[in-house]
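INFO batch 0412 | record 1 of 1 | parsing
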Amino acid sequence: MLAHAVRWLLIFKLGANVALGAFGACLLVGVTVAAISDRLRLPFAALAFASVVSLIPGVFLFQAADSLLTLIFDGANASPALVVRTISYGGTAFMILLAMTLGLIFPKMLIDKTDPYPTGQKPEPARDALHRERNDRGP
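INFO prediction complete | emitting C-alpha cells
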C-alpha cells in the first residue's frame, strides 16, 4: 500500500511521469524487502513481486498489442498516427517495466554487496563466547 501511495504522490503531486512514479515505488519496496528478506529467510523475489505486481502497465501493454494488431491488419493502408500510437504505448510499457526492474534490483544488489551477513545469520556474542570456551578447554 505504501508503494502505491509513493507512486501516487510522485505522479499526481510532484508531476513525475508514470515510469518515474513506478521507479520510486519499486525503489521503496526494494529497500524494504531487501532489508528484511534475508533476516526473515524469505525469498526476495516473491516478496518484492507480490508488492508491486499491480504496478505492471497492463493497460499500456494491451493498447500496444491492439494497435500492433490493427497495424498488421491495415498493412500498407495504416496511418502514420497508428504507427506513432503503437510505438508510444509499447515504449511507455517498456519504460515502466524497466523502471520497476531497476527500482527493485538496485537496493537488493547494494544491500547484498555491503551486508557482512547476507543470510541473516549474525553471530550471537554469547554463543560465540561459549563456543570459544569449549574449544579452549580441549577434548
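INFO post-check: Helices lie at 2-13, 18-40, 44-52, 58-74, 80-114, 125-137.
INFO record closed
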